[in-house]
Design goal:
The strands form two sheets. This protein has a nine-stranded mixed β-sheet, with helices on one face. The termini are far apart. With about 270 residues, the protein is α+β, with helices and mostly antiparallel strands. The chain is globular and about 45 Å long. The chain is built from seven helices and twelve strands. The chain has helices at about 1-25, 55-65, 80-85, 85-95, 115-120, 150, 215-220; strands at about 50, 70, 95-100, 110-115, 135-140, 165-175, 185-195, 195-200, 235, 240-245, 250-255, 260-265. β1, α2 and β2 (about 70) form a beta-alpha-beta unit.
Amino acid sequence: MKTSSRTLFCLVSSIFLLINKYVASRENGGWSTDYFLLANPGPCTVEVRKASSLSQEEFIQRYAYTKPVIIQHATDNSKFYGICEKELMLEKYGSKKIRLSSANTHSYDKRDVTLKYYVENVMKPQTLEMLGNETFYWFGDNNYTEWKELFSQYNPPPYQLPRMTGAYSFGVAGAGTGVPFHFHGPGFGEVIFGRKRWFLYPPEKTPSFHPNRTTLQWLIEDYPKLHPEDYPLDCTINQGEIIYFPDRWWHGTLNLDTSVFISTFLG
């Protein structure tokens, strides 16, 4: 009787877990949602603003050149979300070639594969054992001619920097992947599906990290050893939220779930 009850409990638990995974997957645009991940959202230490109360003038004065900000409800990209669902993406763009980059600071190594091959054979949850230069994922290097139809459906953030224009960088990545600390010009990052955790330091405070170790390794092994004065700005952005980072700010990213995302780099 005890064995039978235990078996029934295990069966019900398995069914419940499968149902939860299915529901979560559908809510994530059909992209798989992994459970029992090594990384979770941390405390948000980046200022969060609603777009309805943030004007272009205040954006320039308060954030554009000085500090990051997370902006909520800035644009309506519901149509773009629909196009980026897994089933539709594979149906429409599965045969297109994409360029994968190694997930280390310099991203020197590149590999060209089809989107379908990447999703089915390469895109897997990150493990603690894998180094950044051994991990390949799709974040940018987009052929703008081939992806023009997709990008034309995206409503970019409604804020601008004087004399700068935006270039899109689109990607899909497995849970636990990310790019270690690096810097470049200013830009916006938006999550379409999933959750992405950001770590940021100002230009004058170079973070301590190994360029070939992953953000996941840094978070699990190095972050807990930091002195509180050396903590980065830290926040997880969810679907439809936008993070802005100024010029030359160090930033590392970590996809908590299988994530679809787009960045607008200003230059």
